[in-house]
């Protein structure tokens, strides 16, 4: 859709008068439009021109915020790992049993992957991400995976679980991406199902209800109905 | 690469004299080339012309085998669900405890997803798959997911596990796609790790070694070193 199609009066910058997308700033609107196009039409098939049209700005305005399409993708992807990375680092620094800490990380991360307007995790498998441009993002995501692995290894040690399972909680969390893609929506209780599953897969046989209560309090969210 | 670049002598059909790809037939060579391009360069960015060039045939020859690029994608994707669907149906029809049957399905399916030359599962998340053209494929994959769910539900019933976990084994199997994408290769023991994890996540606490032995014999594969 062009700016003209927005019913612009010719006074310029109709975007500021008729914001059509979530986002307080032009940058956020560009990210939202790009996320929609990348996840619904494909990264390779989306041009920066098409993104600009979807926001209702000129391409020149878009380039003011992002020099390249890859920069937009990088900003979107980085937004999916920054918070879990911070949380994982905080949780690893805490004392006490590992099981409730891993549970909190798994539920919080699955919630953010379920919660965004667009299924951004589906972009993790793009071949474009293997280029040098995305090495910083790949490194951050690998770091997150490594923090999951360390917390998972601590749980395995606590409950004498199988040593080779330490990568599975990270993978279970990512599975919400596939569920969203297959079902169109992410079932709202899925992060809690995955939280419980991520512990069981490591050999944990303790009470799930205590973990749920603890994680709900920590994250400031509602525990699922029993 | 054009046919000329193959060092063709001008006698025509150099492909038949210098097959450069796995596959006994032109159709299989086309599928192999397309799989490489789709997974390494992106589906949207790959033209049928580029596929024909990669095989060393004319576009007209390619169209003799596949009318559209979507038809090639459909053939590749269908190839990843046909065998597990057949196996799942066979296993569901068998009598006896569900745990060894689910274990065999999980290990076999993870092996085939790990074993192909290209990481075809990475294409499951393409937005193109949401179009009507791929409805038959989506239905077959949904059918496979449903068979996993039924076998998983039977395991849950056997071991008094958590009822809401029945979708997780299917998701754990798919996680080999992410591992391959992240690591470049699929670790060879991963199907067995996932086989054990898929049972534990359903609440199964029996002996893993017995399942491994039974599955190795059934599939005619080597059990992993203990």
UniProtKB/TrEMBL annotation, chains A, B:
Domain named HTH tetR-type: residues: 24-84
Bias type Basic and acidic residues, positions: 14-24
GO terms for MF: DNA-binding transcription factor activity; transcription cis-regulatory region binding
DNA-binding region (UniProt annotation): 47-66
Region (Disordered): 1-24
Keyword annotations of the record: DNA-binding, Transcription, Transcription regulation
The protein's name in its UniProt record: TetR family transcriptional regulator
Organism: Mycobacterium dioxanotrophicus
């Amino acid at each position: 859709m062009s700016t003209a199609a927005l019913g612009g009066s010719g006074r310029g910058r109709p975007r500021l008068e008729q914001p059509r997308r979530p986002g307080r700033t032009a940058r956020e609107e560009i990210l939202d439009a790009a996320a929609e196009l990348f996840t619904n039409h494909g990264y390779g098939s989306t041009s920066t021109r098409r993104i600009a049209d979807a926001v209702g700005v000129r391409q020149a305005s878009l380039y003011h915020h992002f020099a390249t399409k890859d920069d937009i993708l990088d900003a979107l992807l980085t937004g999916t790992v920054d918070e879990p990375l911070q949380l994982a680092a905080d949780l690893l620094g805490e004392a006490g049993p590992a099981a409730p800490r891993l549970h909190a990380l798994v539920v919080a991360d699955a919630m953010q992957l379920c919660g965004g307007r667009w299924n951004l995790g589906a972009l993790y498998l793009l071949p474009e991400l293997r280029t040098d441009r995305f090495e910083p993002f790949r490194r951050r995501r690998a770091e997150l995976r490594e923090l999951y692995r360390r917390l998972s290894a601590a749980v395995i040690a606590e409950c004498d679980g199988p040593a080779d399972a330490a990568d599975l909680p990270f993978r279970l969390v990512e599975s919400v991406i596939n569920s969203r893609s297959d079902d169109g929506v992410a079932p709202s209780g899925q992060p809690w199902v995955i939280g419980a599953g991520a512990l069981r897969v490591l050999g944990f046989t303790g009470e799930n209800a205590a973990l749920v209560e603890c994680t709900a309090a920590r994250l400031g969210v509602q525990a699922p109905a029993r």
